[in-house]
Amino acid sequence: MPLIEVIANDRLGRKVRVKCSPDDTVGDLKALIAAQIGTKPEKIQLKKWYTIFKDHITLADYEIHNGDSLELY
């Protein structure tokens, strides 16, 4: 399956671009983001509008596609 690029924006001017698979879970994505920004994955919360993404659900299930932007808290 092709990789997708997801952008996480913390709204403080930091944007993190991460390449991952649609089959990855949100927890996997958090681990990739944590490695780039130097934070613990448990401290990261990913949202889109008012939906808080749960760690055990895949990106494909949330319909997160290539180039999608998520909010990083």
UniProtKB/TrEMBL annotation:
UniProt keyword annotation of Metal-binding present: no
InterPro entries found in the cross-reference section: Hub1/Ubl5, Ubiquitin-like_dom, Ubiquitin-like_domsf
Classification via Pfam families: ubiquitin
TM regions (residue ranges): none
UniProt domain Ubiquitin-like: residue ranges: 4-73
UniProt keyword list: Ubl conjugation pathway
Top-level lineage group: Eukaryota
PANTHER family, alphabetized: UBIQUITIN-LIKE PROTEIN 5
Name of the molecule in the record: Ubiquitin-like modifier HUB1
Source species: Calocera viscosa (strain TUFC12733)
